[in-house]
TrEMBL record:
Keywords: Membrane, Transmembrane, Transmembrane helix. It comes from Prauserella alba. It comes from the Bacteria. Pfam families: MlaE. This is ABC transporter permease. The keyword Transmembrane helix applies. The chain crosses the membrane at residues 55-79, 161-182, 215-238, 250-270.
C-alpha cells in the first residue's frame, strides 16, 4: 500500500506541471514567430503574398470552401441586422428610436465588427492553419524542412503571421462596411425610420479615431488567432486524431482569449466611463 500512496502526489501535480510546460513551450514558440516576421517579409515575401491570397479569396467560391472575405461580410451583415432591429425596438420603448444611428456608430465600430471578424477569422483561417501544420507535423514534413536547413518556424508560421496581419485590414474594412450597411437597411427600410435622422446621429458619433482603434483591435485579434492556431498545429501529435483535437483546442483557446482581450482593450482605449464625441457626453 505504501507504493501507490507515494505516487499520489506525483499524479495530482502532473497536470499542473504539464500545463506549465505547455505554457512555456507555446510562449517560446510565440516569441520565435514574432521575432522572425521582419525577416520573412524580405526573404519569403512570395510565400507571404500567396498566403494573403489564400486567406482572402481561397481557391473556391467565396462562401463555400473559399476565402474569408465572403464569410466576414455575411457574418457581419447578419449580426448588425440584429443590432439594428433589436436596438430600434429597445430604444423605441423609451421614446429614443432616433438614437438608433448613434447606437450603430458606437456598438458596431467598437465591439460588434471586431469580434465578429475575429470569430470568422478563427473559424475559417485559424482552423485551416492548425490542420495544415498538424498534417505536416504528423507526416514528418516539418522535420524534413529542418534536415534541409530550412528554418521551419519562420518559413511555415511567421509567413502566415505576416499574411494574416496584411489580409485582416481589408477584410475587416469590408466587414465594417457590411455592419454599417446592414444596420442602416434594417432601421430605415424594415423599421421605417427616416434615413436623414439615422444618418445625422450616425455621423454625429462616428469618428476616425474610433475606426482606427477598431482596426487596431482587429489586428491584435488576428495576431492572437494566428499564434494560437499555428502553435497547436505545429506541436500536434498523435496522428490524424491528434490533429483534430489540436484544432478543437486551438479554436476554443482563441475564442476565449479574444473575449478576454476585447474587454481589456475596450477598457484601455475608452476607459470605464467612455466619452461620446459629438453629443457632449
Amino acid at each position: 500500500m505504501a507504493a501507490p500512496v507515494s505516487r499520489l502526489p506525483a499524479r495530482a501535480t502532473r497536470p499542473v506541471v504539464d500545463g506549465f510546460a505547455a505554457l512555456g513551450t507555446h510562449s517560446t514558440f510565440y516569441a520565435r514567430v514574432l521575432a522572425a516576421v521582419p525577416t520573412v517579409l524580405v526573404r519569403y515575401w512570395r510565400h507571404v503574398l500567396r498566403h494573403v491570397n489564400d486567406i482572402s479569396f481561397g481557391s473556391a467560391s467565396l462562401l463555400a470552401g473559399g476565402g474569408t472575405i465572403g464569410v466576414v461580410f455575411a457574418m457581419s451583415a447578419v449580426a448588425s441586422t440584429q443590432i439594428g432591429l433589436e436596438g430600434y425596438r429597445g430604444l423605441d420603448i423609451i421614446g429614443l428610436s432616433p438614437m438608433t444611428g448613434l447606437m450603430s456608430a458606437l456598438v458596431n465600430t467598437r465591439e460588434i465588427a471586431p469580434v465578429v471578424a475575429s470569430v470568422a477569422l478563427a473559424a475559417k483561417v485559424g482552423t485551416g492553419f492548425t490542420a495544415q501544420l498538424g498534417a505536416m507535423r504528423i507526416s514528418d514534413e516539418i522535420d524534413a524542412l529542418e534536415t534541409m536547413a530550412v528554418p521551419s518556424v519562420p518559413f511555415l508560421v511567421s509567413t502566415r503571421m505576416a499574411a494574416a496581419v496584411l489580409a485582416v485590414v481589408p477584410l475587416y474594412l469590408v466587414g465594417l462596411f457590411a455592419s454599417y450597411a446592414a444596420t442602416s437597411l434594417a432601421v430605415t427600410q424594415i423599421k421605417g425610420q427616416s434615413s436623414g435622422t439615422y444618418d445625422y446621429y450616425f455621423q454625429l458619433l462616428l469618428t476616425p479615431g474610433d475606426v482606427g482603434f477598431s482596426l487596431l483591435k482587429a489586428v491584435v485579434f488576428a495576431v492572437i488567432i494566428t499564434l494560437v492556431h499555428c502553435g497547436y498545429g505545429f506541436h500536434a501529435a498523435g496522428g490524424p486524431e491528434g490533429v483534430g483535437r489540436a484544432a478543437g483546442r486551438a479554436l476554443r483557446t482563441s475564442i476565449v482569449t479574444i473575449a478576454i482581450v476585447d474587454v481589456l482593450l475596450t477598457l484601455t482605449i475608452w476607459g470605464t466611463q467612455p466619452t461620446l464625441p459629438g453629443v457632449g457626453a
